Task: structure prediction
Amino acid sequence: MPDPEVRQFLPGHVEQRESYIAVLKTIPLWIHVLWIGVIGCLVLTALETLKLPKFGYERAVWTLVQASLGLMAAAAAHVMTFFVAMPSMEKHGPFDLLMKPFDFWRFTIRRLPTGAWRLWMFAWGLTAGFSALVLIGGIRYSAIFETKSGRKKSTWYQTSQLAPAERRAISVWNG
Result:
């Protein structure tokens, strides 16, 4: 009895090793465009990171603009996917745009390569947005927790000082 773990070939079949090029040729063209675009976004963001000054206003503005444009492109692609899929889907309403996003993307992915540009726009927008925040940076997120004196705000400190002050005000008021 043949071993089930060993692959058995039909008589006359010759096993040929597939080259990487042959495997890449079997992948649809729209997938190549997708990954080339994602890698391109990452490379361009990394190059911009090297050109910008380490700190300063210019780096922060570039980060905010690239992140905003990328995330807006991804949001626009998501809304377009919603409007394309909506007529063909039952029991979905406008609120499902945010609550059930995967249903609409599943609908779009089933119909690929038709409308592949929406998937490209979504993936490239997310890549541009998040790579700006992660690779370029330049935004001090901790600044919102600092006061003018440079110390961090402490809610505990502020609220703990209220009780003695109120007590003094009440004792002065009552005489």
User: Anything to note?
Assistant: The radius of gyration is 28 Å. The helical segments are 20-26, 29-51, 57-85, 96-99, 101-110, 116-136, 155-160, 162-174.
